[in-house]
Write a structure and sequence with these properties.
Blueprint: E1 8-16, E2 19-27, E3 32-37, E4 44-50, H1 52-57, H2 69-77, E5 81-87, H3 94-113, E6 121-126, H4 140-158
Parallel strand pairs: 3-6
Antiparallel strand pairs: 1-2, 2-3, 4-5, 4-6
Length: 163
């Protein structure tokens, strides 16, 4: 479903860990809206805003340790941003932490691809409970699984690119 008027939209679906997952991207003139759902609702609503001023202030000289050139390049690619939960799971819960990681990766993808983008991002995320680790102390397998899930979600989001 690609429409140009009145709002640009893209939609994609895939199975992530055998669970149907949908992403809808809407490009308003003043916001990007992304809905990532496995539950047919928007779940938690998160607002992300890039902070380019903070990025200008960040340099390798603000760190105690010497950084390699590769680490310096990685640091330069990180887009500082603010995350605000508007509705739903706060970042203090495991689900909220997972959602915040997904939102941060989406933010890096959008603002990293288009550094001069000033529109904030609204992300609605609703994942099935089995995709969210329950423990606060994660095993290496849980960390790898969470990373694969987040990477799969990001790939699906990238297929709905409006930026």
């Amino acid at each position: 479903m690609d429409a140009i008027f009145p709002v640009g939209t893209k939609q994609a679906s895939a199975y992530i860990k055998d669970i149907p997952t949908s992403v809808v991207s809407l490009g308003y003139s003043n916001y990007f809206v992304l809905l990532i759902s496995q539950c047919n609702n928007f779940g938690s609503l998160i607002k992300l805003t890039a902070n380019p001023e903070l990025q200008k202030q960040t340099s390798r000289y603000q760190f105690d340790a010497e950084l390699s050139d590769e680490e310096d390049i990685m640091l330069a690619k990180i887009v500082p941003h603010s995350t605000t939960f508007l509705l739903g799971n706060p970042s203090s819960s495991q689900r909220g932490l997972m959602y915040e990681l997904v939102a941060s990766r989406v933010c890096q993808a959008i603002y990293g691809a288009k550094p001069d983008e000033s529109r904030p991002i609204l992300i609605g995320i609703s994942l099935k409970p089995e995709l969210v680790p329950k423990e606060t102390e994660l095993t290496e397998i849980q960390i790898k699984t969470s990373k694969l899930i987040i990477d799969s979600l990001l790939e699906l989001v990238e297929s709905c690119k409006l930026w």
